[in-house]
Write the structure tokens for this entry.
Amino acid sequence: MQEAIDQLNGKELMGRYLDLKVSTAKKTTGDTSHFAKALSQKPEMCRTVGVFNLRWATTEEELAGHFQECGEVFAARVVSKNGRPQGFGFVEFVGMDSVDKAVKLTGSSIGGRPIRVDYAENLDS
């Protein structure tokens, strides 16, 4: 790889000069302090949480399964726009007590990505 970089670096391609460098992987520290954002005010009769920082490949089944330990899941929805996932979703529970357990899962991982969980308006409102 370095040989290819040395051969092509500084060469012209389609009227532009190449500036090639070896990419290094982003260091992951496991620090989830950026998820320490204060919770939103809990809506009255709240049964729904918003789940943020989802992988684009996250399925609704995977989302629902992650929150089953909090209580019975009524519905899970991964938000997409024009068929493209947006990296967040919603989980609605049968019981209102489940949302308080669910927001404590902030920092847990779905598909290897740490998530942030917050109170949300109910899906039917």
